[in-house]
Structures are given as C-alpha cells and as structure tokens.
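We both want to read discrete structure tokens more fluently, so let's practise on a single case. Once you have written the record down, we can walk along the chain together.
***
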Amino acid sequence: MTAPRQGTFVAFSSRDFRLLWGGQTVSFVGDAAFIVALGWRVTDLTGKASSLGFVLALESLAMLVTLLWGGVLADRHSRRLLMIGSDLARACVIATFFALEVTGHVSLTAILVLATLFGLADGFFQPAFQGIVPLVVEQPMLASANSWLGVARNGAAIVGPGISAALYHTSGPSLVWAIDGASFVVSAAALWLARPRAFEPGPPLGLRRELGEGLRYVLSEPWMWTGIAAATVILMLAMAPFAALLPRIVQAHYHRGVGSYGAIFSAMAAGMVVGSLLWARWHPARFRVIVCFAAFGINDVGIIALALSPWYPVALAAAAWRGLWIGVGISAWTTLMSELVPERLLSRASSIDFFGSIGLTPVGYVLAGAIATVVAPTTILAIGGALGACLWFAPLTWRRVRLRA
C-alpha cells in the first residue's frame, strides 16, 4: 500500500508550495487565454496560416537566447527573485500589447517585436521554475507537487480558452491582454510571499564552465539526453505544425470559429488534468522512463485522428486523448528530473532540457507555415503525428534508458 507521505494531496501541506501553486494557477489561466486570443488575432490580422508560425518561432528563438544563461543564474542565485523579475518583465510586455490594441496601433511588426521581448524574459523564468519545486516541498512530495502543477497548468488551459473565446467574441482581444498582464503581477506577488529553502550552489566557475558542467551531467544520463534528442525532432515535426496550423484547420477544414478553436484546447487540457492526476495517484516506483516515453508516443496518435477526421466531435475526442497522455508524460518527466538530478545542477539541466527540446521548434513553425501554402495543413499534421508516434519509442530500445528508473 502507498505510504501516506506519497499521497495525492501531500504537497499542499507546504505553505510555500501553496503560494507557488496559487500564483502559477492564476498565471497559467492568463497565459492560456492569451495564446488562444493571440492565434485568432494574428490570423484575423493577416489572413495567412503562416503568420502565427512566424510569431511563435520568433518568441521561441528569443527564449532560446536567454534560456541557458537563465539556467546558470538560477543555479547560482535566488530562483525566486529570477522568477519575480521575469514575471514583472512579461507583465510590462503584455501591458504594451494592451496599449497598442486599445489605441488601434497593433500590427504584425509590433506583435513580432513584443513576442521577441516576451521570449527573452521567459527564458529566465523556466529554469528557475523547474529548480524551485524541490525547494518548497520535501523529496517524497515531488510526484504530488509536479502533478498538481500540471493540473494547474492544464486546468487553466480548460478555463483560459473559454474566457478568451467569450471575451474575444463580445469585446475583442484587449481585455484578454489585460487579464494576462495582471496574472503575471499576481504570480510575482505570491512568489514574493514565499520562502523557499536555501540550497548550496556549486563553486563559481564562470558562465561557460558552469554551463559545461550541466551539459556533461545531461550527457552522462542516457534517459535524459535521448529524451531531449527525441523531443527536439518530434516537437519540430508534430507539435509546431499543430500549434501553427490549428487556427486554419478549424476555419477551413471544420468551418468553425474561435469558440471551436478554443474548445479543442480545452478538451486537450481536460485530458491533461486527468493524466496529471493519474500520475499523482499512481507514480509507479519502476519503469517510469518507459511510461514517460510511451505516453508521449501514444499522444501523437491524437494528432493523426484530429487531422484526418472530417467530424469536429472526433477532433475534440482526439484532443482529449492527446491531453491524457501528455499529462502523464510531462508529470513523469518532471518528477524524474526533480528526483534524479542533483539539486545544484537542476536549473542548468532544466535549461538544457528546454533548449534542446524546443531547439528546432522555431524551424517547425516556419516550415509548417511555408509548406501549408502548397500542402494541405491536415496532411502536414497527419504526417508529423505519425512520425512522432514512432520516434518516441526509439530510445526505449536501449536497455540503459528503459531501466534507469
């Protein structure tokens, strides 16, 4: 029988985790509302399937610029203060977006500039966020903590698109921008009140040598570097086209509007909530790497179904299927990272994970938009999903990967 200390809700016994979780839940809702409104706003503004891909690619590239530096800083300095600074910087970017919208000066150029600034700030947040979780809960609570952060993220993705679709339809996108900007301020305030445990950083070696230390650790763990390598290719082939082309597919393939576009995100998020809760309840002691990689592979079958089905209800079911397995896979991966990576290296390892995983995603956004001018977006998604479903199982052929944890 599972020990009480490993219970589903055990992470909430920590005050600092409650603050982290509460602030991030509000921020996740703002982000989920924002991304849906942004996709529809860019598509409305330009009328081109490729435009959103360029915006997302530029944001991702900007995040890559600061991501590795952010990992080094988060292993050397206060992760909490880095997160607060990033939150406030992103709030300023969204406030500028809001001001441009209400004054009627929004253009694709302005969106591209703001996406770049947002990505630069985001690169400092993500490694610190991954590294702060073990500082607000004890090690036996990590599965619960990572799962409930997944629930917050994915639950917000159910609520956020609905809020976005309703506000966009009734009053336009400006109120969505205001909500997202305010959510970053709430997140920063919650982090200001938190008091995460201090950790002992390694000796200062300089940016390059400290980053090299993190990279050597990642390369010494086959389960980690093969997972990152697989994600690098698969996110380019499957996830990037899905994100960039979904608005056009909803419009042209299913002949529906922004509400139906948001509903697909909500269905996927609902599945992710279930998957995250399933991991919080289950989190097996063995074969966790197998579960993690297999879950990611199975999720991509949902992309194929969504792309090939002529029926919108099937697309909703496929999105929920995707979400279920993504929820399991992400919760498993973040728990493995938190448990297996030394604390003083965790933010650097996380930054390398992010950098490697999304390294080719900007290329995927651009290629998806360009190829969609000559190939049907549904065909692009179906091929990408099929390749992703196969490639996730490739690392599991290596015994050292399968049996690591």
User: Anything to note?
Assistant: The CA atoms of residues 289 and 405 lie 6 Å apart.
